[in-house]
Amino acid sequence: MAVLRKEVVSDPVEAVTQYDQLKRELSQISRRQSIQDDKLEEGIASEEEFDLDDFLQTMSADGEKAGQKIKHIGVIWKYLTVEGFGADTHPIPNLLTTAIKVFMPWKLFGFTFGTASRKTILQDLTGFCKDGEMLLVLGRPGAGCTSLLKVLANMRGSYTKVDGQISYGGIDHKTFSSRYRGQVVYNHEEDQHYPSLTLKQTLQFALRTKTPGNRLPQETRKEFVDKIIYLLGNMLGLLKKMDTLVGNTWIRGLSGGERKRLSIAEIMITQSAINCWDCSTRGLDSATAYDYIRSLRIMTNIRNTTTIATLYQASDNIYSTFDKVLLLDTGRCIYFGPVDEAKAYFEEMGFYCHPRTSTPDFLTGICNPLEREVQPGMELKVPQHASDFDARYRESAVCKRMMNELQKYENRITRENHAELFKEAVRDEQQKRAFRNQPYVASFYQQVEALTIRQYHLLLKDWDGLVSRYTTVLILSLITGSCFYSLPLDGAGAFARTGCILWIAMANAYISQNEIFYFFTGRPVLEKQKHFAMYRPSAFYVAQIIMDIPLTVAQIVMSVVASYFLAGLNLTAGRFFTHIIMLIFINLTMSGFFRLVGVITGQIFMASQLGGVFNILLFLTTGYVIPYKSMHPWFLWIFWINPLAYIYKGLLSNEMSGQVYTCEGQGNSVPHGPGYDDWNYKVCTMPGGNPGENFVHGEGYLDTVLGYDTSQMWVPDFVAVVGFFVFFTVASVTLMEFTNASGDNAGSNATKRYLRGKAPKPRTEQEEDERRKRQQEITMDNTASSATFSWQHINYSIPSANGPLQLLNNVSGIIKPGHLTALMGATGTGKTTLLDVLARRKTIGNVDGRIYLNNEILLDDFERITAYCEQMDIHQPMSTVREAMQFSAYLRQDVNISKEDKDAYVEEIIQLLEMEDIGDAQIGTVEEGSGISVEERKRLTIGMELVSKPKLLFLDEPTSGLDAQSSYNIVRFLRKLADAGWPVLCTIHQPSALLFEHFDSILLLVQGGRTAYYGPIGDDARTMINYFESNGGPKCAPEANPAEYILQAVGAGTGATTTSDDWAEIWRNSFQAKELDQELENIHKLTGVDPKRRTMIYATPFWTQLALVCKRLWVVYWRSFSYNIGRITMIVVASLFLGFSYWQLSNNIVDLQNRAFILISTTVMAETLIRAVQPMFLMERSYFRRDYASRYYGWLPFSISIIMVEIIYVLVLAAIFLCITYWTIGFASTSATVGYFYIMLAVKVIWAVTLGLVLASLTENAIVALTVNVLMTSTMNMFAGLFQTPEAMPRFYSSWVYWANPVHYYVEGLLTNVIEHLQVVCNEGDMIKFNVPLGQTCGEYMANFFALGGTGYITDSNATDVCNYCKFKSGKEFYTVNYNWSASNKWRNVAIIIGLAVFNTLTFFVLCYWKRKAKR
What is the pLDDT of residues 925-949, one digit of tens each? Predict the structure, then answer.
């Protein structure tokens, strides 16, 4: 196969010949893939030929016609040294250590003042990569390959020090970063995309932001986008997947390999001059990986780009595509030079390369003393350690030649003025209105346009979120309107109006808090595309606002129509539309506010908790709970910076100004009743009235009660809200532009956190040699119980819009004891699907066929006794590597094995997988840039299954993302397991010839989930090769890799030999297939109909499961510092604010009402805890589902443990709240009163947390759960009896909703507890004054009023002119008259809430059982 490598092919005629050959091959595969990728859709696939010339002419010849300039720019690095924090710098944080940092605030921001250790990652590297060249960077994990690529890509944020010079065509790194950021890009090993977008939508967005300004004449942007999508789709075999969701671990969509190809396409779209590819072939089969690298070669040559890549397990074909190779060992360069000289360089040094070992594997093996082989007689002459290799290289002729070439290249850069030519090319590439001094191709308007279109698609795909949002708003608005149905224009109606408008405003504002979670969902993609210079973060924010407007308008109009008329609010057109406009702006403002909270904080839990704190403060300072006139001076400033306070004031002014409220009727005047008809001697009880008048103006009421001036409705009230909206927008945009949330830290060099004192110490070279020797000595005892696993005629289909979609088609096979079987096939042929079906992981779709284990149908213990290493590495991030593996061993190994033996086996596996250095490291998460690397996670996934000592092993791509030596260790260990009696089935991508030799048999799948071959591989793979050669396949060259040969033979990859044979049909008619079917039929005949074997679903008893799961969850919560510190902070801030806002309440009427509002305000604390616990539970449930699929433990231990751990924290949080608020407010200090307060508070919060768990367990979407919270909590607070008394509620609500509401019982219990023995003493402001008739004293005049049950008292019964009347004389009278509550119900209320909490808990258990399996 010809390879077009620029530096090697010097003859123009030969170059043209090779180019034409490669072009034809890519054309052939595009036609073949367009059919194969959707073989099920016969007749739909187009056979139109895709000619690579379209792509090349577009980027070169046709580009010249449009005046396009090629960006010739390479990269040079000199004396490059990179340092990072040492392993002991970042111990695993927990609740205690984080709390201590509060007293050392500098540590919260990462300042250590020189106390932290440092480690050298890269040491004194010098090298270059010219434009039009491809550089391959090789090395074992930890060698510094990823760090080199990141530093070259100008991603320096995760390093403490970067010394040396890096030049991009003569431009320094600082200038390049600010002006040309998108011209050097780093493709992360992990794929980061919006899972709910389709592949086509993802590519369209990237192209809209990267469409050049100097296109072909008359070519529109849309035509350019469509053309490039078609070309990339054909080149990468994605054309038939354009309408498929991208998907991720939780959303079904593209396969892992297809997502990797999407990432590759996205990088190609950026048209960057320098591309850094970090292990971009991970998850691709060898043929597809080769196609991809060859495409890079073509683009590098034609577009003169600079390509730098790290690859694991690269084949010789891939290796030979590159121009130069850089080999790293522990940060040192041990070879840098031409690829075709590297092997000879080390062979001349004295090392031996096995004939079947690929050159990349040989080179990386040089870095491992136990893997490398030395030629006889050279043992004492070859270098031993990285420093020796480094010194030897610097003395070599290759090094001198490379340094000479570097000098010549620098001279050429200066002579040809590459920097200016590059700058001109970049300027020409930009759109007309794009700023020339910025790195963006598209103008700001075009960026906003593209982002708005993408945001529209994202919102449409978030159907659950939209439905829950609008449904919640509609239902809550209907409930609010009907609860305050047809409000009367009297005193009671005035008070109810203020409550009604408060709930209308607050409900819509609370919905906005979900913006925090939307923001964090897209944050990794935002940071990646910010690095690509696709758009300004400010454009991203503007696009969100643009999409907010129609959604908000629709939400507010629906809300207002549902509530406004039912409540009987002011029915004039002007006031109605003013009401709508104000609510629209407050909703937009609060959305901006919560987005700003998300921008400021770095973690979703912290942002959620901080949002909860602000929610409490904003609610309490609106002016309703604490009237403006009653606010203490030290918190008055919060009122003036609270947008909700301004809008609430504006809404009330809009509603009540100009209204006249009557004082006629029972209870609206004092005195009232028979004989009290003369208004000269009575007065309105409604504040704001004048003596002798039987009405009150709305303006007077607002001024007297709340201190509002209705003339300020537009200015400053509405204008202030608009100002807040602008401020939040500008602040968010500014912070997003100048901060990097996670981009530099995420990835392969993630920050590791160790248990305190457990960080690994640097080993000497001798200690490292000893460690590797111990690893080689690991042996397996023959302890496996022989198991034969067979499957026959397996068919699997899933429902789709066009009917059932067949993914597996009559697949059969058998794994016998001691057999190691490879499952291979091109990307998308159904390998993972087959493993999911065989391992009984599928929960949707229809599985048909026979599956037997040891001549038995699969019993209940099948998942427990088998191990399945899945492709997605899902682990509990708070655990350490050792803790996670011990957890698996304790729960999955036989209960009779001692803990000591289990621990010893775990250590053995840790040593085998070379994880000694990360044994005490926290697993962490890739997205947050903390924890172990992607490659280390793969090893952990394998280790978690191996420690269980299963009878049968399934492994899905166990070597993907691992270097050659790690892969060899894994396969070698699998071979040991097979030799000890275990049957093993694993998918494997890109196996070298040496790896492939370890397998006994192979199952090869082709498109459509059909079998192309199943059977033994044979010595030197001859049995398998003979099958294909005898059935019309190409001849296999002696030096060829058999694994690559069979993939090419069946039509995978551009290097395949074109064939019209249907290998699935050939297999079906072969005698090998008939023999297999006969063997499987014999097994079927021997299978017992009713197996009698005793089965155990779990290896350990219930109480052991409960103890271990509870212990792990306790550790998880203890280390989830952002979650718990956030909760504690919220409680402390809310408690301090409540306590000092109501500092030492007196016994007057106003403070009597304030006591009631304090108690209802405490429910806000419970509601915030609900919002906090739901994302935490949903995350924990995802890890539980992974564990449950392997039967670590049952759903009941998990659900009980969640409840138990939460209750412990809740009790502490309730105690903190009590200690801060109770005595500062001035509640009664008797032990009985304090004790009851704590018991009721704790019980209520437990009930609230269990309710949150119930709501979360009902859904798969945190946004849905959080939205439903608003409906539930708002409804319960509304019907508690304080905002609308039971007598004023419609009969429908007062007859059952009020009595079924736990908040009613909570507030009744607490209020009667704290004011039962309180004696009311009215001050001058509380007194209601009225004149007494001539000749009567106040006592005589009021005697009939009190005789008829009137409440309160008069201060001077003998007064004859003005009577001073106090409405209540005791706390008991207050709650009895207003709410018909009784202190005798206190303990009944506690019992009711306990009962409701128990009900929630039982419901939660049922839902955990119902939702114990993920949909897959």
Answer: 876 767 888 778 888 988 898 898 8
